[in-house]
Structures are given as C-alpha cells and as structure tokens.
Amino acid sequence: MNRPLQITYRGMGPSEAMSEHIREQAEKLEQFFDRIVGCHVVVEQPHKHHQQGRRFHVRVDLHVPGKDIVVGKEHERREHEDPYQAVNDAFEAARHQLQHHADVLRAHHQA
Fold it and tell me: In a 3-state reduction of DSSP, which class is residue 18?
C-alpha cells in the first residue's frame, strides 16, 4: 500500500488485538491484489442495546487505481455481535469486490 492502513473506532475504545486482526486481514487482501493504494477501516458500535447485546458494524474503504471500493455502505450494513466476525465478513466482501475489479481489468487489457 502506498498509504498506511487507517483504523478508526467509533462508539468504542481502540483495541490493539482488534487492530492487529484488521492489519492481518488487510495484508491478506494486499497479497490477493497487490495494487491497493490505501485502506481505511471503521469499526463502530453504534448503539448499546440493553436487550440485544453489543452490535458492531465494519466499513472498509479500499483505494485501487481507477476505483474506490466501499464495503459497509449504510444500506448494506449487517450487524454482528462478534466484532472479529464483523471484520472477517467485511474483508471477505471486499475480496469479492476486488476479484470483480481484477476480472474487469483483465478483460479490458485483453480486449
């Protein structure tokens, strides 16, 4: 990555263990697609539900040449009780979008 990974926590304190997990996931993405310019991850605990327990949202913004990939847009958000699972799901969705972007790039270069 040209720019360092950015991690933001909202509605909760920062966690070194969570930050390390996010760094590992970002490194896996970079191994999958080595032209990632930057990545910003937001981990959010928006509301403290007394009856439902804690819920987490994760947003991943990837910057690649010619495109910004955003996972976790407001209408796509899924809530998770486990913040690590929320991170895993967000990065898996990002990987799928990166795969699609790579396929489009390959098709464009072959044409």
Answer: helix
Q: For residue 69, with 0-12 CB atoms within 10 Å meaning exposed, 13-18 middle and 19 or more buried, which class applies?
A: buried
Residue 60 within any structural domain of the chain: yes
Residue 57 lies in a domain: yes
Domain that holds residue 21: 6-110
Copy the structure tokens of residue 53. Answer: 């327990």
53-106 pLDDT, tens digit each: 678 999 999 999 888 999 986 534 556 788 999 999 999 999 999 999 888 887
CB 79 within 8 A of CB 55: yes
Residue 44 maps to a domain: yes
Q: Is 10 helix (H, G, I), strand (E, B) or coil?
A: strand
Q: What's the whole-model pTM score?
A: 0.85
CATH of the domain at 37: 3.30.160.100
